[in-house]
C-alpha cells in the first residue's frame, strides 16, 4: 500500500514540473487586453513551432488578412495558417524553450524567443539585442 501511494505521488509530482507548450494558446493584445489570435504550438523532429489558426477581428476588419509588413518569404501570405514561432528547442535544465524565433505579423519584425510555462499560462518573450517584451498567452480549448 505504501509503495503504491509513493509511486502515485512521484508520477503526479513529475507531471507538475514538466508541462509542455504543445497545444493551443490565446494571445492577448498588450494595450486593449482583448484576445488577438489562437496560436497552435506543435513539435516536429524535436523542435517546436507555432502557427496562427484563428484571429479575433472586429466586424469592419479584414477577416482573412495577409502579412503586408513581412519582409521574408511570408510577405503576402495569409496570416491565418502562418508560422510565427520557429525552431524552438527545449532546455530541460531550466524548463524553457529557447534558441528559436518569433515573428510579429503586425510589423513583420522577427525576434529571438524564449517560452516557458508559469502558473499554467505560456510566457512568450521576444528579444531584440538587450531589449525584450514578455506576453502572457492563455491556454485555449475550442469554445
Topology:
Blueprint: H1 2-17, E1 23-28, E2 35-44, E3 47-55, E4 83-91, E5 96-103, E6 110-118, E7 121-128, E8 131-139
Antiparallel strand pairs: 1-2, 1-8, 2-3, 3-4, 4-5, 5-6, 6-7, 7-8
Report on the structure:
The structure is a single chain. An 8-stranded antiparallel beta barrel has the order 1-2-3-4-5-6-7-8. The protein starts with a helix and ends with a strand. The protein is built from 1 helix and 8 strands. The protein has one helix at 2-17; strands at residues 23-28, 35-44, 47-55, 83-91, 96-103, 110-118, 121-128, 131-139. The chain is mainly β and 143 residues long. Strand 6 (110-118) and strand 7 (121-128) form a beta hairpin.
Q: Gist?
A:
Helix content is 11%, strand content 48%.
Major sheet description: 8 strands, antiparallel, barrel
Q: Detail the poorly predicted runs.
A: 3-16
CATH topology: Lipocalin
The CATH architecture name reads Beta Barrel
Oligomeric status: single chain
Q: What is the succession of H and E elements?
A: HEEEEEEEE
Total of helices: 1
Mean pLDDT: 88
**Portion of residues in helices?**
10-25%
The figure for the number of domains is: 1
Number of strands: 8
Secondary structural class: mainly beta
Morphology: globular
CATH class: Mainly Beta
* Strand arrangement, major sheet: 1-2-3-4-5-6-7-8
Note the beta-strand portion: over 45%
